[in-house]
Design the sequence.
């Protein structure tokens, strides 16, 4: 902890040198990425808190860390002795970061942060606060970078082209579609900073961020020219030729700021202030007109094309085979697993599958009470043996050339209490109800959320996370704009569900200090009936991994629910069975046999 | 129709006289009331179209009428031969009224309407269009009034005080609550034009609008003074004394415009631009600051207090007794009913109940194919005999001192086809699913809507109206802000469901030219479990009228749904039975006996 104190002291010295009174250190990179590479973990460096979400604010007298409910326990432990105050976001009476900054900022004082690692929309809120308080704002200095001697580099990783048999659409066609969207907005230029959007558009994948196969870069598109700003060192000749063939020019990563500064007067610039960093926005000439809209690529990449859909089914078939083999080991007497070794074994099973490119996120393998910690991640310090009772919750996914997966199964490791079975059955019913929803076109994931939660609400139970998120194609396992959520955030228009969207269905129940249950399948939105009432939509379940019949109380299920479950298990056996060794196939047949009420 | 043509010619002459090129005639009174008294039916006078919703736009060359899907057939018939073009709102390619006006309005031309009968929010949209087109706007002239020689007067009707044993809260307490809300908004004065809000606030009821017991009036409230603007001729001495006792001053109805003009400089004025008419808004001094928020009374009157809830249960008991007696006649061999005489008989049954003040809306009594016309209203010209087959759909409600009701039952008048039973059962299941929903506090009627529609969606069926609306207490049978709706309108924040709100639950199926089914109960939001997950809410079903067992296919229902139905029928028999003559009680016992799958 004395390390953190030393770093705070060094930062405060720099703050004095630059005349900054309050300095904000966010968790982000220059692209508002959900996961960031080690180079960008400035907030972690300054506080010692390793959680994925959090913001540090440092004044001359105080240092505070803001994080959300998922991380309260972890942050408490990691901040101990550092002198840093933990601000528990969302708790009554706890100020937000902007509220805190406003309360501290006096007239004539100076607020600072690195404008490259904060979204323009957030930064503009601080801009308003500074103006209101009669204070200054300095967003040009990366003060943490100046006191971080051993800061990790951004390693040079390999880029590869995602061939059209995987992507299903050429770069030319994608760029043309974006240009049409620009025309609709009467935009002269589009600035793209979201790494997944760029990777999708160029049909390129990289390795700059753990678990998200993308490359740090920016992109600008006018009606005639497309420029990709990237570290030239990682662009092999083959990629250079490929891009040149598609009319994409390459420039140095950092050149985008200067290029934006020298835009001709009065240009209409399409950008999403929630994704574009503050310095990019500030680089625009004053005469530019910013059109603040979601990137057109956001919806385009969420709606999977036919090739992608065919591939995604294949990716799920592979992941389901791997996960089922893992289940077989767990359910047929493996005695030597801990949380970590079980997760490793699942990785081994996945690695056997063709075209596998590794994990799509750090898996959650949580035994017993650990299952109740929604974002638990086993470490050498927390790892426990998987015993012959209670539940093991496993939430994991893989990247394949054919797409990305995200699945959760909760496994009865031995005898369960009746209440545990009751809760498992309720979670299963919740999962099935959403998966079998039929609905009129025009519905959003907000209007369907209650279909999933209702079986739990009937028992006076709920879960405090979203019901589902969009899934990228060999990109971030979490993507928008589709999601199942109970409430609509004030600033976000609900996204209509559209055929081709892939969204997870992951209800849960978490009993603190006892166990956690979550059951997650991925759902593909597909067309249903079309008649005088309009177009109906429904879901195809992509994940084909058995539920645990040892945890199911058939008497708590309606005949319709039992029919859904039996039909699903039939599909699992038919699809996965042929890829298993005989003994495992026999076991799966038995394990997926029909249930009767 | 030559009458309508003459009126259009007369209006155009006035338009020339006043230099107006385009004149808009809305359907509203000065209070944006849903129902309006005959005096305000200017759009009906100008077009001959008698539907409740519609807007006429008259230019020197053209006349158009805009109305929504409920009224397409009726408007077609009523406009025939008038030369007025029907604009079918919501159909592809049909411009909205503002779009049409914008396309017609040339620089230097003049757009006109009577600013008293248009909400400020709508009028400001036309203001923007006029400015954009370089045209003028005249909102001070009621041109229809100038050519309408036999315009109906506003009749003097009786006011009465709703005693505290009915209202449950004194005027003083209500005014104090509104003043606290004004303080929160830092408002110096609040302008109230919504008639139901005023009636609720003053605990007064009147009779100026058919089916809505309110009085045409405005009200202003400052921190010290409350002024009620009303026709003095209808205020009896007793009412005058009552208001004086509660510190409410009375002024002439029209004086409000002048009074607002002479407000002191810089006052902060709380008003809802959606409810306050354009002339009221324009009467404010330029220095006034308009705070555009929903009236605080809107939510206050939607959340019923304990006295109101106790009374409302009693109102529903009475309405249910009347409706059940009506059902008895229909189901036990009455052979002589037509739609109109059946509706009259229901009125007779209701009139026998104590404290009944008549219909809360014009009832829908629709036999066979008429049931498929969602807003059908039988007239001498459309009336048909109720035969011994198919469905009779009856949607009706009453006003009582104890509250207002709204119920729909669909009655099997004889043998049904299997498909008719299948649809009836699906609508019943939809109704039951919403009624038995449990949910976390924070949910809105938008997030629960799908629970109701899902059983219908599963069959590829939907209905094109909202699932439910709030119900006033001896006020408008339709009130906000609570509602069950599939989509959130862009301009409206979803209202959280709160204990004490009363909302209808009225799914339906409509097969054009064949039959319609709708089943409507009113639901009271009540508290459920409170535990570590938070506060749960659920519903108490207020309506206690049997569903038609002759139309139910038990085999299409889950055991849980059957248990819900049987428990409901038990409650119906226990509550309503004691108020019926013996023969009818015996019939009800048989008619509400348990169903088995």
Sequence:
């Amino acid at each position: 902890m004395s390390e953190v104190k030393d770093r705070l002291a060094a930062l405060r010295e720099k703050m004095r040198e630059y005349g900054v009174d309050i300095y904000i250190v966010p968790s982000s990179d220059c692209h508002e990425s959900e996961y960031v590479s080690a180079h960008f973990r400035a907030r972690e460096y300054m506080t010692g808190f390793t959680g994925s979400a959090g913001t540090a604010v440092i004044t001359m007298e105080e240092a505070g860390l803001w994080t959300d409910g998922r991380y309260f326990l972890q942050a408490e432990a990691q901040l101990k002795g550092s002198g840093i105050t933990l601000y528990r976001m969302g708790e009554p009476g706890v100020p937000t970061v902007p509220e805190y900054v406003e309360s501290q900022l006096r007239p004539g004082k100076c607020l600072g942060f690195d404008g490259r690692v904060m979204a323009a929309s957030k930064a503009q809120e601080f801009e308003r606060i500074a103006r209101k308080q009669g204070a200054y704002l300095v967003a040009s200095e990366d003060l943490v970078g100046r006191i971080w001697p051993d800061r990790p580099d951004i390693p040079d990783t390999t880029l590869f082209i995602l061939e059209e048999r995987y992507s299903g659409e050429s770069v030319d066609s994608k760029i043309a579609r974006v240009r049409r969207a620009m025309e609709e907005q009467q935009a002269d230029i589009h600035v793209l900073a979201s790494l997944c959007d760029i990777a999708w558009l160029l049909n390129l994948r990289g390795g700059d961020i753990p678990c998200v196969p993308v490359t740090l870069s920016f992109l600008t598109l006018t009606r005639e020219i497309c420029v990709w700003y990237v570290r030239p060192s990682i662009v092999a000749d083959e990629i250079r030729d490929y891009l040149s063939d598609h009319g994409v020019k390459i420039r140095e990563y950092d050149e985008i700021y200067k290029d934006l500064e020298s835009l001709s007067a009065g240009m209409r610039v399409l950008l999403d202030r929630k994704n574009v960093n503050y310095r990019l926005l500030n680089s625009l000439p004053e005469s530019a007109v910013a059109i603040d809209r979601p990137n057109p690529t956001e919806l385009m990449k969420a709606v999977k094309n036919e090739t992608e859909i065919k591939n995604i089914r294949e990716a799920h078939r592979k992941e389901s085979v791997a996960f089922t083999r893992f289940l077989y080991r767990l359910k047929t007497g493996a005695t030597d697993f801990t949380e970590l070794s079980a997760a490793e074994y699942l990785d081994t099973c996945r690695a056997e599958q063709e075209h596998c490119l590794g994990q799509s996120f750090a898996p959650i393998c949580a035994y017993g009470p650990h299952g109740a910690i929604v974002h638990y991640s086993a470490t050498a310090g927390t790892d426990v043996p998987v015993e012959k009772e209670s539940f093991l919750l496993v939430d994991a996914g893989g990247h394949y050339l054919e797409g990305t997966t995200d699945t959760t199964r909760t496994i009865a490791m031995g005898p369960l209490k009746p209440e545990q079975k009751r809760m498992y059955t309720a979670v299963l019913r919740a999962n099935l109800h959403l998966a079998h929803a039929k609905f009129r076109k025009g519905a959003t994931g907000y209007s369907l959320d209650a279909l999933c939660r209702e079986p739990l609400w009937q028992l006076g139970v709920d879960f405090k996370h979203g019901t589902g998120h969009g899934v990228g194609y060999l990109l971030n396992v979490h993507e928008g704009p589709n999601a199942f959520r109970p409430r609509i955030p004030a600033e976000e228009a609900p996204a209509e569900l559209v055929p081709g969207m892939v969204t997870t269905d992951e209800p849960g129940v978490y009993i603190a200090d006892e166990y956690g249950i979550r059951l997650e399948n991925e759902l593909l939105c597909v067309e249903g009936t079309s008649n005088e009432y309009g177009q109906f939509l429904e879901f195809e379940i992509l994940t084909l991994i058995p539920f645990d019949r040892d945890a199911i109380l058939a008497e708590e299920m309606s005949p319709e629910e039992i029919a859904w479950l039996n039909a699903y298990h039939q599909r699992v056996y038919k699809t996965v069975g042929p890829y298993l060794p005989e003994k495992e196939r026999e076991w799966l047949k038995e394990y997926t046999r029909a249930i009767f009420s």
Observations:
- The first helix of chain A runs from residue 2 to 18.
- The two ends of chain A are 58 Å apart (CA to CA).
- The mean pLDDT of chain A is 95.
